[in-house]
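Is this the right way to post C-alpha cells for a design question? Let me know if I should format differently. Anyway, here goes:
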C-alpha cells in the first residue's frame, strides 16, 4: 500500500481512455509505436520511485535529450560561451524551423532543433566518436544506468533527416556552427536515438530537480548552477509552441519529444516522466500533458504557487511508551503539499509498531492540507486500520476526511494528549 503510487495509478486509469492525438511518423521507425502504451513515473529527492503503467518499456529520447546535452555543454564551456553560440529566447517558430538570428546565425534556443544541433557541436571532444561517447556517458549518469542507442531509429532518422542536415549546413555557412555539418547532424540523430524508459526519465528529471545530483545514485552529474540554467530554459522553451500555455496550466520546467516522452521537474522536490506516443497539434504527448495537469493541481506543484511554510514539515517521528503502550507518533506542521506528504507517509511507515499497534498523527500545527495529500492520508489511515492497528489524528480542523460513503476508520481529537490517551486505552 502506497498512496503516491495510488495517486499515479488513479491518474493513469482516468486518462488511459484518452484517444486524441497521433503517433509521429516523419521518422518512419517511430510510426510503429503502440498508441496504448502509457506510463507515469516519479522520483523524489530522497530517491524513492513510484510508477504506474508502462514504465519499463524502452523508447528513444528524441527531443528530451536536448536539455541534458545543453547541461553538458554548459559544464564544458561555461554559460557565457554557450550563450554566445545558442540563445535562450522562445522562438515562436516550429521546432524544426529554419530560423536563425540575422547577422550571427545564432539559433534562438537549445530546445529547437537548430539550437540543439549547435549545442551538440559544443560538447568538448577531439572527434565525433568521442563527442557521442561523452554525451552517452552523461545521459547514462543522469539516468543512473548505462544507456544504449536504438540503431534502427538512428538509421531511420539518418536516412530521412535532410531538414536537420540542412539546418546544420545553414549554421555552418552563417558561421554559428564550426564543426562538420554531417558529423554534427549524425551525432544529434544518435543522441535522439538513445533508449530510455519512463522510469529512467523520471530519474533524469529528478537529477535536474536536485541541483544536478542524481538522487538515486548520489552522483553529482552537472554543477548546480548548470542544472538551474537548464531548468530555466526548459521552463520557457521546453514544450514546443505550447510552452506558455503549459507554464500557465501546469507550471513546471518540462521537455517533451516526438516519441512520446515528457519530463517535468519540481525544483528541489521531484522529477516526473510520462510515456505515451500520441501527440497533440503542438507535438506534445496528449496523455502526458493531461497527467501533469491533474498532478500539478492535485498536489500544488506549480512553481509559482504560494509555497506555504518552507520550514521542516514532518517535525517528529518516534516510538514512545504511553501508559505502558508502544505508540508510533508522527508530528507535522505547516502546509502539507507533495514533498511533505511523501515524507509523512515514510515517517508513518517507519514508526508503525507490529500488529496490532497504535499510531497517532499529530497535525495540530498543520495549517493546510492539499486535496491529494488529504486523500492519500485517509488511505494510509484506512490501511493501518485494515491491518489491525488503532489510529488517531490530532488536528484543529478536519483536514483528513473519509471518502464519501465510507466509514471513518480512525478517531479524531483536538489535542495530542487526547489522541495518545485514546490509543493507549484500547
Ligand atoms: N530527432 C527528432 C528531430 O530532430 C527530434 C524532434 C523532437 O523530438 O522534437 O526531428
Amino acid at each position: 500500500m502506497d498512496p503516491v503510487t495510488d495517486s499515479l495509478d488513479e491518474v493513469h486509469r482516468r486518462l488511459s481512455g484518452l484517444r486524441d492525438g497521433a503517433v509521429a511518423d516523419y521518422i518512419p521507425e517511430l510510426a510503429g509505436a503502440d498508441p496504448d502504451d502509457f506510463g507515469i513515473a516519479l522520483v523524489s529527492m530522497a530517491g524513492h520511485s513510484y510508477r504506474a503503467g508502462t514504465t519499463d518499456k524502452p523508447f528513444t529520447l528524441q527531443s528530451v535529450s536536448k536539455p541534458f546535452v545543453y547541461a553538458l555543454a554548459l559544464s564544458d564551456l561555461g554559460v557565457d560561451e554557450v550563450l554566445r553560440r545558442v540563445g535562450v529566447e522562445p522562438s515562436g517558430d516550429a521546432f524544426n524551423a529554419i530560423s536563425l538570428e540575422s547577422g550571427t546565425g545564432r539559433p534562438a534556443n537549445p530546445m529547437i532543433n537548430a539550437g540543439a544541433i549547435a549545442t551538440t557541436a559544443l560538447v568538448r571532444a577531439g572527434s565525433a566518436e568521442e563527442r557521442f561517447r561523452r554525451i552517452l556517458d552523461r545521459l547514462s549518469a543522469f539516468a543512473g544506468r548505462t544507456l544504449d542507442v536504438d540503431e534502427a531509429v538512428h538509421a531511420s532518422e539518418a536516412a530521412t533527416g535532410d531538414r536537420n542536415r540542412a539546418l546544420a549546413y545553414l549554421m555552418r555557412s552563417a558561421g554559428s556552427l564550426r564543426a562538420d555539418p554531417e558529423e554534427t547532424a549524425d551525432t544529434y540523430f544518435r543522441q535522439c536515438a538513445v533508449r530510455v524508459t519512463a522510469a529512467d526519465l523520471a530519474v533524469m528529471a529528478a537529477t535536474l530537480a536536485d541541483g544536478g545530483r542524481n538522487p538515486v545514485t548520489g552522483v553529482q552529474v552537472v554543477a548546480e548552477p548548470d542544472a538551474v540554467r537548464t531548468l530555466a530554459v526548459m521552463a520557457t522553451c521546453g514544450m514546443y509552441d505550447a510552452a506558455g500555455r503549459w507554464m500557465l496550466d501546469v507550471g513546471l520546467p518540462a521537455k517533451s519529444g516526438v516519441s512520446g516522452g515528457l519530463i517535468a521537474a519540481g525544483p528541489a522536490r521531484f522529477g516526473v516522466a510520462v510515456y505515451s506516443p500520441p501527440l497533440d497539434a503542438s507535438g506534445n504527448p496528449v496523455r502526458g500533458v493531461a497527467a501533469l495537469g491533474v498532478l500539478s493541481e492535485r498536489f500544488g506543484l506549480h512553481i509559482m504557487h504560494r509555497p506555504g511554510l518552507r520550514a521542516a514539515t514532518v517535525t517528529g517521528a518516534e516510538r514512545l511508551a504511553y501508559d505502558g503502550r508502544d505508540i508510533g507518533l508522527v508530528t507535522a506542521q505547516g502546509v502539507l503539499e507533495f514533498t511533505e506528504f511523501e515524507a509523512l507517509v515514510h515517517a508513518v511507515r517507519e514508526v508503525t509498531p507490529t500488529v496490532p499497534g497504535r499510531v497517532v498523527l499529530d497535525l495540530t500545527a498543520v495549517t493546510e492540507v492539499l486535496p491529494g495529500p488529504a486523500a492519500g492520508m485517509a488511505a494510509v489511515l484506512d490501511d493501518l486500520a485494515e491491518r489491525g492497528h488503532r489510529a488517531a489524528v490530532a488536528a484543529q480542523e478536519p483536514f483528513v476526511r473519509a471518502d464519501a460513503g465510507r466509514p471513518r476508520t480512525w478517531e479524531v481529537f483536538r489535542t495530542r494528549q487526547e489522541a495518545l490517551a485514546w490509543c493507549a486505552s484500547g
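Format looks fine. Someone answered above. Worth noting: The chain has two domains: 3-299, 314-425. The chain has a mean pLDDT of 94.
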